[in-house]
Queue: 2 jobs
Job 1
Amino acid sequence: MPQFCEVALPIPLGLTFTYRIAEGELPVIGGRVLVPFRQQRLLGIVTELHDREPRVQTRTILAVLDFLPLLDGHLMKLGKWIADYYLAPVGEVFRTMLPLGAEFKRAVIYRIAEAGHMALHAAGTLGSSARSRRIPEEYLSEIKVLDLLSSRGEMREASLRTLSGANKAVLAGMVRKKWIAREDVSAKRDAARTVRTAVLAGDVEDGKRLNDNQRTLIEMLASTGGKLALEKLRELHVPRSTLETVVRRGLVEVIEEPAGFHVSSTKPRSREFEFNAAQRSALQQIQQSITAREFGGVLLHGVTGSGKTAVYLSAMRGVLESGRSAILLVPEIGLTPAVAADLHEIFGGQVAILHSGMSNDERAEQWHRIRRGEARIVVGTRSAVFAPVSDLALIVVDEEHDSSYKQEEAPRYHARDVAVVRAKIAGAVVVLGSATPSLESYFNATKKKYALIELRDRVEQRSLPDVEIVDMRQEFQDTGSEQVISRKLSEEIKARLDRQEQAMILLNRRGYSPVVLCRACGKTLECQNCAIALTHHKSDRKMQCHYCGFLAPVPQKCIHCGSDYLYFLGTGSEKLEELLHGIFPAARIGRLDRDTVRGRQHFERVLGALHNGELDVLVGTQMIAKGHDIHGVTLVGVVGADMALGMPDFRAAERTFQLLTQVAGRAGRGPTPGKVVLQTYFQDHYAVQYAARHDFSGFYEKELRFRSWMHYPPYSSLANVVVRSDTLDDALRWSGLLGRWFEKTRHEGIRVLGPAPAPILRLKKDYRYHFVLKSQSRGKLNALLRSMLAFAGQEKIPRTQVIVDIDALWLM
Ligand SMILES: [Zn+2]
Ligand SMILES: [Zn+2]
C-alpha cells in the first residue's frame, strides 16, 4: 500500500502537495480527496500514489471522496498538458475540467447588505474634519470590506480577508450589525434543486367540459409529451386557477423533480441529409479517418452557406451508430434553443448539451450523465472539450476561428487547440470547420498537419452576395456632413422594404454614443476603474463601462470643468436603431446586442420574428453575424465593422476580414440573391478589399506575408505577460524588476518587447504593464517564462498579479 499521495489543489500555485494516506483509505489517481490546507479544508485531485518519504512533515488526508477516478487516464494527461503548455496551476486546470463547482471547494461567501451600503455612503461623506480625527483601526478595515464588496459583488472569505486585512472577528461583527451577509455556498449548492412539473394524468377525451383556458393548458401539455415545468406553463398566461381546477379534476398532476436540462428519451429520428457531391466527399473523407482509429486532423473550409453543419451532424450520427462518442464545440452564441431542438431530433436522448446559461447543478448533472455513458454525443461551448466521454471517436470545432474558444481567465487555454491535443491522446479525429479559418489553422493545413477539405460553393448553386463598398470619406465630402447611413444603403433598404424582403444592419458597437466630450476643456468622461470612455445608454439613462460594468448617471455638466458644453459623439447600435426608425417610420425594426438580449429566450425570439417575417430590419452587433440561416434576408448593410483596423493589435485585420465575411454570408441564403453594402473609412485596406471579393486565399497570402515579416504567429510562438496592480507604484516597480531580469537573462532566439504600458493602461482598477515575447521555439519560450515566474516568486510579486497568456488573442 502506498503511504503518500500527491494532490493538486485549486489554488494559484503550479505544484502538487504531498499528504499521508490514512490507514485503510484507498485514494485513486484522478479521484478527489478532502485535505487540510493552511486553515482550510480543500478538495483536490490525486495525481500520484507513492512511498517517497517527504523531507517535511506531512498532514493526513481527511477523506477519500471517490473510489473510481473522476478523470480518466486520458483526461489526466490532457490536464497535465494544459498546465504545462499554458503555465497554469495544475489544480486550477482540474477544477476547470470538472464542472462540479459546488462539490469541489467548500466556500463561504460574503455580500454587502442594505445597511452596509448606507454605512459606506456615510463614511464617504465624512468631512475632512472627521477624517483628521483618530479613527479606530477596526472601523477602517470594516470600511475596506464594504468598499470591496460593493465594487466586486460577492467574494469568498479567503480573498476578502486577504484584501481587506479584516480578521474573522471583524467579519462576524459586521454580520451581526447586518452590514454584510454570510453564506455557506457549498451547503446550498449541494442540496439538489427541484422544479415543479405538471404531468398529464387523467382522461382528456372528456374535452367538452373544459373551458378555453383549460383546453389551452391541456393541449400545451399534450403537445410536449404530457409533461412540462410549471414555469413554462405560466408563459401561456392562463389564470392560476385554471391549473388548480384541472389538478382538482384529476386531469393533471403536479410533481417535484430534480432540476436539469430535460431531454426526452425518444429514439433519434432518421433525418435524411441531402448532400451535394462536395459534401458527400467531405463526409466520406472524415468517416474514413474515423474508421482508421488513429489521430487525424481535418480543416473543413467551406464558404458561408456551403452546408458544413450537415456534414458534421451526419458524421456524428455515424459515430453514435457505431457505439462510440463524439463532441461538437460551438461558439458562445451558437447554442440557441432551436439548435438544441434540432440536436434532440437527430440524436434523441443520447445528446448532452452544455452551455454557459446553465446553473452549476445543471452542468454537474449533465456531466454525470455523460460519464455514466447515457449521453455519447456532447454539444457545448468551450469547456465541453473536457466532457468525460469514453471511446472518443470525433471532436468537431465549429467556427474554429471564433475568439470565444479562448478562455480569458486562468487557466487561459484555447479550446480548439485543446481539442486537437485531446484527439491526439485518444486516437480520435478532430474536424475544425469555418468559412474563415484562423491563420494558424489554415497554415497548419497548408503544411499538411491537417487534411484540407474545401467546400467552394453554396448549397443548391446559390451564389455568394455582391458586395458594394461605400467610401464614407467620400460620402462626407459629397453630403457635407458626417453620415451614419449612406445614401446608397438607405436606397437599398428602401428597395427591400418595397419588395417585402428583409435586411440586417451591422454596427459592431453597442450603446447610444460611445464618447462624451467636453467642448470647453476637451476631456472625455472616463470610467472610474478603467482608462476607457464611458458609453451613453440612452434608454437606460446611464453611462456604462463596457469593460468592467461601472455605471454612472448621464452628466449634465462636465465633471472636470463644470461647463455645460457636452457633446455625445459617435453612434452605437441603440442610436442606429433610432435613426432607422426616423428614416423608415413604417418599417418593423428589431435590435440584437448584449443590451437587448437579456436571456437566451429573447435572442431566440428576435431571430424567430425575423424568420417568420415579423421584422423587416434587424440591427445588431456581431451577434447577428454568426451562423443564422434566415432565407428572407437579401440585404446586409455594414455600418461599422472596421473600427478594429485603427487599433494596435496584429490580429485586427484578420478579425475584421472574418467579421465582414461572416456578416456578408447572412445575405441571400434563400432563393433570392443577396447584396451587401459595406460602409468603411478604410476602403483601401486589404482586409476590406478581400472580404468584398470573398477571396479568402488572397487575404490569407497577404496577411501571412505580413505576419512573417513581423515575426508574429503562425511564424512564431507568442506570449503576453501582463503585470498588474491597483497601485501604479507596484505595477511600475514589478514590471521594472521583470524587465531588468529579462535583460540580464540570456535567452537566445527569444524576442522580449517591453515593459510597455498596456494599450488599456488601467482596467478594473488595475494598472497594467506588459511584455510581448516571441520565439521560434515554444520549448525555449516556456522555459524562460517558467524561470521568470520563479524569479517573480522570489521577489514576492504575488502570482495572481503576473498574468502569462500563451498564444494570446488580445494584446490590449
Ligand atoms: Zn470640461
Ligand atoms: Zn471600467
Note: The first helix runs from residue 73 to 85.
Job 2
Amino acid sequence: MLWRGRRQSDNIEDERSDSGGGLGGGLGGSPGQFRIPIGGRAGGGSSIILVILVVLAGWYFGFDPSQILGDGSGGQITDNSGSQDSTGAPASDEMKQFVATVLAETEDTWTGIFKANGLTYEDPKLVLFSGQIRSACGFASSAAGPFYCPGDHKVYLDMTFFQQLDQQFGASGEFARAYVVAHEVGHHVQNLTGIMQKFNQMRQSMGEAEANQMSVRVELQADCFAGVWAHYTAQKGILEQGDMESALNAAKQIGDDTLQKKMQGYVVPESFNHGTSAQRQTWLARGYKSGKLSDCDTFNNPV
Ligand SMILES: [Zn+2]
C-alpha cells in the first residue's frame, strides 16, 4: 500500500506507556465463551443498510474473544498521544504511522459513504496499547487480539498482534494489517448504524449456538465492510500488487476452522463465532469487488 506521505489520523490515542503489565492476571477465560460488551451510545438509529438484524458477540478480530471482561463500567482513557512509548523502537513508530494513515483512509472513505446516504460519520478513536488496557468494555488483554468497544466508540489495538499475525498465523504483508484495522472500523460502522444494538437486544433470547451463528454474520459483515473500504482505497490508486492477496490470506488464516485446527487440532463448528476461512474470504472479496454496502447484507443472505 502506498501509504507514506498521506494524511495520518489525529484519532490515535497512544496508551502504550501506561498499559503494559502490572494489572495482574486473571483475565483469561475459555475459548468459545465470551461476554458481550454492552453498547452505550446508539449511533443515531438511522441505518444505511436496511434490515440488518444484528450485532456482534465478540467484536474481536481474531480468536479467543473471552479475554474481554466487563460491561461498560466505564474505564477512563486519557489521551497520552505524544508520550514516549515504552516499546519505542523506530519500527514501532513507523507502524504507528501506518496505522494512523490507514485509519485516516477509513475516515475519508466512510465519511463519503455516509454522506452519500444522507448520514454523518463520526470518526472512531483508535487506542494503541501494550499488554492490557481498560476500556468502557472492561479490562482487555492483548491476548484477545484487536477489538472494538461500542460503548466508547474506540478500536483497541496492540500492534504486537501484527507480529503474531505474521509469525504465528502466517499472514504477512502490510495490507493484512490494514485489513485488521478496517475490520474493526467495520464494527464501528455497525455500531453507528444501529446493527449492534439490535443484536444485543435479540441475543437476549438466544441460546449460545444461535448467538454464535449471529455473531458470525456480524463478523462477516465487518469483513465485507473492510472489503468496501479496500475497494475505494484501490480506486485511489494506492494499492500495490499483492495487497489484496495479503488481506485475503489473512482472512483465511484467521478463519475459525483454520485457527481451531491449528490450535487444538480439530474443529467445533457450533463454537464458530467469526466464520470459516472460506466465509471470511468470500465476504471480504465481495465487499472489495463491488464497493457496495448492499452487497454486505450478511443477515438476509446465506453466508
Ligand atoms: Zn470482528
Note: Residues 59-61, 183, 187, 219, 222 surround zinc ion (CB under 6 Å).
